[in-house]
Amino acid sequence: MSLRLSTVILPVRPWREGGRDQWIRAEELGFHTAYSYDHLSWRSFRDLPWFGAIPTLTAAAAATERMRLGTLVTSPNFRHPVTLAKELMTLDDISGGRITLGIGAGGNGFDATALGQDPWTPRERADRFAEFVPLLDRLLTEPAVSARGTFYSADEVRNIPGCVQRPRLPFAVAATGPRGLKLAAAHGQAWVTTGDPKLYEAGTPEQSLEALRGQLTRLEKAFVEIGRDIEPMEKVLLTGFTPERNTLLESVDAFVDFAGRHQELGFTELVIHAPIPDSDFVADQGVFEKIATEGLAQLAS
Predict the structure, then answer these.
(1) What value does the mean pLDDT take over residues 83-88?
(2) What is the pLDDT of residues 124-178, one digit of tens each?
(3) What is the percent of the chain with per-residue pLDDT over 70, rounded to a whole number?
């Protein structure tokens, strides 16, 4: 598969104060997909402006025409499959079938306790995720769904007329553990990783590549176990969380070097963060745009 380049636009700008322009510009730059984080708040942005992902993507769908849109990622931390399915079906309709659902088990950040619950243990998150994804899959593909689970239930739920994309909009499943990888193999059209978090601070690029190679091997094993062909599966790397996070967007050459090494591993889509001043995602806007328009061309030459 050829390598695709996408971006993440964090929902930090008011729509009328630069927010809308960012999404339009992303389409002009030729990004394959523009994603947004689906959180109630996130890390250093907790006490700063932060808007909802689904309404933002709905507005972006109305402001753009060709570029795909999606979440990276949605989680069970504050979502329920029944209500989420209805919103996604509607969003897929408004966008004309351009939505990808990035979905993961969630973490122990602010979202984990915002509804008043105690944070779930890693096992509890995995248990919920294992129930959440199959039910959401059914809700988006079947006209009427009833299910009774340990965590999530549905009673004669209708989602008519269904998604524009058939049989439903694609799932990009974020996972690195064995249970999550099995869900990705069974329900995903794409797989998402950020790399090995243990290497974020002090790891080397070589160690990161080796860790990613191991993740890809385990993903392939999960496909073999269920008898599914891995080849059509998109492999997505959300950048910014590997040892190269501070140099990746310094120049087109730096990006091309990074992209080439990860394409060789088997990744089919790289996602780079749109620059945000005075944040972990600070970068030169001009270089970012040059990477968007020239990076993949240089990689292919």
Answers:
(1) 98
(2) 999 999 999 999 999 999 999 999 999 999 999 999 999 999 999 999 999 999 9
(3) 100
Cα angle, residue 245 at apex, residues 66 and 59 outer, rounded to 5°: 30
Question: In terms of Cα–Cα distance, which of 171, 221, 222 is closest to 192?
Answer: 171
At residue 18, φ and ψ (nearest 5 deg) are 105, -20
Gap between the Cα atoms of 37 and 33, Å rounded? 13
- Rounded Cα distance, 32 and 204, in Å: 29
Is the alpha carbon torsion for 167, 32, 60, 132 positive or negative? Answer: positive
How many other CB atoms are there within 10 angstroms of residue 18's CB atom? 11
**DSSP one-letter code for 205:** H
pLDDT at 300: 84
Going 10 to 33 to 251 to 284, the CA torsion angle's sign is negative
Supply 83's token pair.
Answer: 């209500």
For residue 19, the 8-state DSSP code is I
Q: What's the rounded Cα separation, in Å, for the pair 1 and 137?
A: 26
Give the Cα separation of 34 and 48 in Å (integer).
22
Q: How far is CA 117 from the centre of its chain?
A: 25
Give the per-residue pLDDT at 1.
64
Q: What is the pLDDT of residues 268-281, one digit of tens each?
A: 999 999 999 999 99
The identity of residue 27, as a single letter, is: E
